[in-house]
Amino acid sequence: MQKVFARPQSMLETTSHFCPGCHHGTVHRLLCEAIDHYGIRENTVGVPGVGCGVFLYDYIDIDVCEAPHGRAPAVATGMKRVAPENFIFTYQGDGDLGAIGFSEVVHTANRGENITVIFVNNSVYGMTGGQMAPTTLLGQRTTTSPRGRDLRNDGYPLRMTEMLAALEGVVFAARVSLHTAAHVKKARKAVMKAFHTQLEGTGFSFIEFISACPTNWNLSSQESVNRIEKEIIPYYKTGIFKEKDGGG
Fold first, then answer.
1. Cβ-contact 53, 94 below 8 angstroms
2. So what's the pLDDT on residue 248?
């Protein structure tokens, strides 16, 4: 009997600490598949920010350097400039990247730094108690917006992929989702393209992953999947928003 599905070699064999229905584990697997595909495990460094994905070293068999809250793109920039032969990616949530780290990712992208940014958008601050994030949808209830996000007080949710795609230094920018097998397949292709972009030395690449947070959404896993399809994707449309020549 032929084995057609297995754990990627660069993924550590361990028990996940993520909540049931969370998609962080799926993102990790896609990253590991790309690392294995390109054979770059020995010279790959992950730079997680503060948030649910901070324990990257527990799941992927690579070097990991934790960054202060929001500063992962700045740390990754320094690491890539000092050791350009290494493959460097950041791993950040919506609060880490879209709030306290907004200026870091914008200027890193605008400079066209040859790194890859992985952005997990579950529309809340997951680790710290489900507070409203920059990506929280209008009307969405969180622990700090119990009546729902209000446009007059809180403004619009940030569409980070569209914003960054407008910058000249960005070579590849995409938004993908993980709520169905078909979407995971598209996400895998986007990760491969983003990795190829850095390996070719062509510039900054960015992937936004629409992810579920059943715990802080107060929904079941299936209800969370339905919410992504019916509420989140209509606002955060998936697709490739920028791909320059040489982006894979």
1. no
2. 45
Residue 2 in any domain: the answer is no
Residue 2 pLDDT level (bands cut at 50, 70, 90): confident
Q: Has residue 40 been placed in a domain?
A: yes
Residue span of the structural domain in which 181 resides: 24-149+156-243
Integer angstrom CA distances of residue 231 from 181, 193, 247: 19, 27, 31
Which residues share a beta bridge with 125? 131
- Structural domains in the chain (count): 1
Report CA torsion sign: 172, 50, 30, 182.
negative
Global pTM value: 0.95
Q: What is the CATH number of the domain that holds 30?
A: 3.40.50.970
Pairing label, strands 116-121, 204-210? parallel
